[in-house]
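[Primary structure, fold]
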Amino acid sequence: MVALLRIEGVFILALGVFLIVKGLISGGSIEWFVISGILFMTLFGGIGLLLSANAFKTKKMYGRAPAVLGNLIAIGVSKYIFEAGFWWAALPLTLYAALTIYCAVSIVPHKK
């Protein structure tokens, strides 16, 4: 579970950096509020999932809700990706999010 959340958190942070860099080096101009929105969402999403992974590692219960909510959002995003015709990207995202939700709900941390 920890590995699933860490991979997802790092991927979201990397995707945010990629989108910002791509927007800055593209021919068109990108507005500062667009960059700040991307930065805000990726920082909070990625760092939130990394903190959730840390909570699972230390066997705390507060890591469960961000993991489930973040992946429910990912399933919603994958619906729009699928509707845009990118089923090859939507399918792995949906499966990964579903696996992470299943693990987050079914794994109950037991304190020693």
